[in-house]
Design brief:
two-stranded antiparallel ribbon, elongated, about 5% strand, 2 domains, mainly alpha, Arc Repressor Mutant, subunit A, 5 helices, about 60% helix
Amino acid sequence: MNIIISNSSDIPIFKQISTSIKTSIYDGELEEGEALPSVRILANDLKISFLTVKRAYDELEAEGLIKTIPGKGSFIAPKNLELMKEEKLKEIQDLMDQIYKIAKLSNISKEEIKELFTIIFEEEA
């Protein structure tokens, strides 16, 4: 697992860590049951506070993406496929809202947008 953090980012470091781990889970890089580095080890590797890593792990656990077992460590939780799908649908919806706003400002019709999506989906087939 490769976590890269940026001290110059507006995004808090704990959020950068949790987002990086989420991406690794969604992309299948981290699999169900796989152990995450301990809070202490990850904090030392990233040269940040233990509390920052703990906060990231707590957030991931609250979202049901990891499970922490006292004395054993943190592990990737069994995937809730429905929850993951719902999160991705929300992400797509947000992007489509942006597309709608741009299209409306640019006087681009719904048919033109549909045609663009059709072309994109056909190229991927």
